[in-house]
Amino acid sequence: MNARIEDAGDRLIIWNGNTAKRGALSPELYDCINTALVQATEPRIRAVILTSEGGFFCAGGNLNVLIERRKMSEEARREKVDELHDLLRAMRASPVPLIAAVEGGAAGAGLSLALACDLIVAAKDAKFTAAYVKAGLVPDGGLTSAMARLLPRPLAMEMCLLGRPVLATRFAELGAVNRLSGPGKAMEEAMAIADHLAAGPREAQGVIRGLVAQAYETSETEQLDAERDAMAAAAGKDEAAEGIAAFLEKRAPAYP
């Protein structure tokens, strides 16, 4: 089984099980991510965790598949890339926060998947690689966009032009990884983050992730208007009533 969804009550865990190919992308993984994002609209779901079996998060595209694609027309190859891009657009539109739990490493489009998540936990010995250039290819999956937002230009250029791996510890120093774990402990840390999210205001969290995501694309004036509208709406919600009351009463909130 190349991928599966584990229903863990208030969270969904997507397991990339393509261990024979170091977690390379597969149609089953695409299907599981898309299915989980639909299931995440249920009010009980508070987070989606993307992780792997076999000790390596995702090695990106399967080169044997790419060899076969050379026989296709360029237009057909464009459509195949769009399948990946549609998946990443769906992840960006997730109703709940996405957490990547990275063991071993993330390469190529696997790195794109990790960076498309809202929060990243990585084992200290994990490596991140933009490996395309080693195969005479160029980045896809929104990788250049994500790297330009998160990393200094010289490092992004080094990773893309030279294909050199960067340790998770370096990504953490730059703020591109939220939390480091010991080897084999990334999932444990991701579950702790999911616990924290589950105790928070679900609707407000969804609005927050949307505001932060769009802030990279909009002008300051547009963002101020978006924040105004979101705050005006949030202030009238039951979540705000409970959150404010709990703060004033110096107790833990019990969100609806």
Which structural traits does this protein have?
256 residues, 2-enoyl-CoA Hydratase, Chain A, domain 1, 11 helices, three-stranded mixed sheet, alpha/beta, 2 domains
Summed up, what is this model?
The chain is α/β, with parallel strands linked by helices and 256 residues long.
Q: What is the tally of beta strands?
A: 9
Q: What value does the average pLDDT take? A: 96
Determine the CATH topology of the largest domain: 2-enoyl-CoA Hydratase, Chain A, domain 1
Biggest sheet: strands, sense, closure? Answer: 6 strands, mixed
Q: What is the count of DSSP helices, taking H or I runs of 4+ residues? A: 11
Shape label: globular
SSE pattern: EEHEHHEEHEEHHEHEHHHH
CATH architecture of the largest domain: Alpha-Beta Complex
What proportion strand?
5-15%
Q: Quote the distance from N terminus to C terminus.
A: 37 Å
User: In what order do the strands lie side by side in the largest sheet?
Assistant: 1-2-3-4-6-9
Low-confidence parts, pLDDT < 50 over ≥5 residues? none
**Briefly, what CATH class of the largest domain?**
Alpha Beta
Give the tally of structural domains: 2
* Rg estimate, integer Å: 19 Å
Judged by helices, strands and strand pairing, the structural class is alpha/beta
Helix content: 40-55%
By CATH, the superfamily of the largest domain comes out as 2-enoyl-CoA Hydratase, Chain A, domain 1
